[in-house]
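---------- Forwarded message ----------

FYI, see the DUF4352 domain-containing protein record below. Original note from H. follows.
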Amino acid sequence: MTTSAYRRIAGASIAMIGVLGLAACNNETVSATPPATSVPSSSSSQAPNQSQSQTTTSQAPETTQDAPSTSSSSSSSSAAAGTGSYTGPTQVTAANAKMTFGKGAVIKDGDDLYNLKVKDLKVAPNSVYADANLNKANGIVYYIDFDVTSIKQNKTFFGTNSVNGLFLYPTFKSGAKAKRLYGDAPGCKSTSDKLTVGQTGSSCYVYQITGAKATTVTYNDYSHNITWSK
């Protein structure tokens, strides 16, 4: 296997594993229980740290971000931070909003404000299990295609990979086991492009989840429990 064919990304999330035939890297499987109703109230892990791995159980990890407003996104204005300008909705999306694929939600994450548009949830082709050396018994592999547009950001890096993969995932039922797989897969390219205010980038995250086939996507950061569906 050549390094040009496959790319490894280190990090910690629902689980960490190299994608596409790579040896397991701090491979951690989690028995997860997503929130049954609106917004969860407890957690068992923290947001990912690039220098260490960690295990999460039932819900998404804690975050130190400011709690966003729960009003619906409708207003438009230009962002004051960053090097560009943004014209579009800036009001933080309602906490329990129900979205359709292709619609954007405004997310406040600490000092960052961005528009997250989940475009699609796909079941990976069967070839991914052999290509990535994955066991089909460990669940169905999914791709989440999304766009992210920076509205306002702090002075640190903000990019297409700033969307926390612990908070964005295919919706699954209580008792399921979920992994986030890092890297690229056939038909799913994960990017880490830096974005300035007003810029939009596209990326794709990979997951493997047991249980019934997922048809919706959830963004759950304890301030939101937004879902996308067809």
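H. also flagged this: Helices lie at 127-131.
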